[in-house]
Amino acid sequence: MPELPEVETTRRLLARRLAGGRVAGVSVRCGALRTPVDAEIAARLPGARVLGVGRRGKFLVIETDRGGVISHLGMSGRWSFVPDGCAPGKHDHIDLHLDGGELLRYHDPRRFGAFLWGGESPSEHPSLARLGPEPWGEGGAEEIGDHLWSAARRRSAPLRNLLLDGEVVAGVGNIYANEAAHRAGIRPQRSAGKISRVRYRALAAALEAVLAEAIERGGTTLRDYADPEGNEGGFGDRCLVYGREGEPCRGCGKRVERIVLSARSAFFCPRCQR
Length: 274
Fold this sequence. Notes:
It is built from 7 helices and 10 strands. The protein is of the alpha+beta class and 274 residues long.
């Protein structure tokens, strides 16, 4: 699933190429995504001028002078720019026809994405309103670390699961939760409620650093992800533990281990993390 760095990379490219232009039309070939495509989009969006493209957690928000459109990439979704008139493939479900003679096309083999009408106040849409804070704040790592520590009180769930809870912190996915926990020296299976405030502040700093580095490298491509210009993410070869079961830890040489938490893999170094 595209996580915050992949969505932010997509946002930056869309913002650069869409802002100031108009949407000439909308074609929805398959509206049966995870949440059915809002019919109001096809009615309201044609002719709208794009004011900008924002992001909230893993959601994109295309801001126009008629309202906002909210997009979630699900497990396998991606937006790409193609020439107008380019024949759609089997899993090409939505086209935004742009006034420059180009299409912004949504491709999603698993159809777990979403394309929602956010109206004049997209931030108040239920899909966005329930989200926790972004994993960085004006107060820096101390602010987010204190927030995580407070949210973890009386929780016995593993730390990794806490970080994946979008209502606690927005946008953090499995790759970057594992990588941040390694950099902070905390095992992902540790009970979230038994980690000190000091260690949560260290974790928040590690999380911010990992996400910033991943955004700089265009995110991570495991299978499906590519940005709207077709580029794959380059952070995968920088992962210290994620996907490296049995390989030597790049810090101490101990073999990286994998466990399963809530049906998803978690990776850690048994020596560097405790």
